[in-house]
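User: Can you predict the 3D structure for this chain?
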Amino acid sequence: MRGRILIYGGTGYTGRLIAEYARNLRRATVIAGRTEHRVLALAAELALSGRVVTLDEPQAIDDALGDIDVLINAASPFARTAPPLIEACLRTRTHYLDITGELPIFQSAARYDDAARERGIMIMPGVGLGIVASDCLALHVAGRIPNAKYLRMAVLRPDSFSRGSIRSALGLSNSQVTIRRNGRLIFVPVGRLQRVFDYGDGGRESVAVNWADVFTAYYSTGIRNIEAYFEANLASRAFYQLGAGVADALRLPPVERWLDAVVRTLPDGPSAQRRQMERCVIVAEVEDSWRQRSCARLETPDGYSFTAEAATEIATRVAGGDFRPGFQTPAGVYGADLVLEFKGTRREELADSLSAWSVP
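Assistant: Here is the predicted structure, written as structure tokens:
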């Protein structure tokens, strides 16, 4: 095995952080993207190889992956970039990783499970903060209540976002929220499920959102009832409800083009100084039929720095032969304590939760 890693979308905000982190590893790393001058400039700056790849030419993707063992897709929106890259990885026997948190991408990727097993490659979306941290925490609390029936995840709202995160969030605007009930994915209206979670400074209102944990945590833990929440104050909840009301309009081509133009005017993402000041907090709780409960809170560095380290670490493991063929989840392959190996990450057991279960 050559152990060569390619970062597609390496010139984007998070992709660049991954490339900067990866250049210090003992693995040959390649930066790839659509825009030639940006790819070559960054490759020269970081002393890495660069390749220009457009996703509308399957043969060009195959050629770019011909000598690659692991692909990290860091290019949003993943609804556009993941399908052609996964299919190319299957053709070239290249392991596929990405940093998405978009639920539809996981649902689509799981359909390639049999093909990936047959080709001997691993498909693992969500190797950034969005899934690695929450998936590990979910498996941890599930391990403390062996017959857990319910799992609820909650994330503290960050103070800043990159352009790619905003673009992905706009693409996920919906009038309904996906949750898991009795093993099946179902929909409830936006705003119906609201709960209080303790992120470390007392209870905060949170609202159920479309997050991929309702899909990935089922694979990792086997728990049949799962909800995912996002901390939201009164203004945030009102804005969320407004977005749900116009979700269909946001998908009209003229509106999509206008929003994309607006997003391009925003800064790439938070500065290094701003990132150092931020933390990410995730809470997870499980409960069994006898109301025995396990709760834990995980604190990590800012999401972008964590993503760079997590994506690079998992890619390095895969390139070294530590993987499981097929569609996989981070905790499912590498265990609940994987997250504790990353710098500045701390897990804390909680005596109880402030929220109460309610089944719609």
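The CA atoms of residues 148 and 288 lie 4 Å apart. The domain at 129-303+340-350 is CATH 3.30.360.10 (Dihydrodipicolinate Reductase; domain 2).
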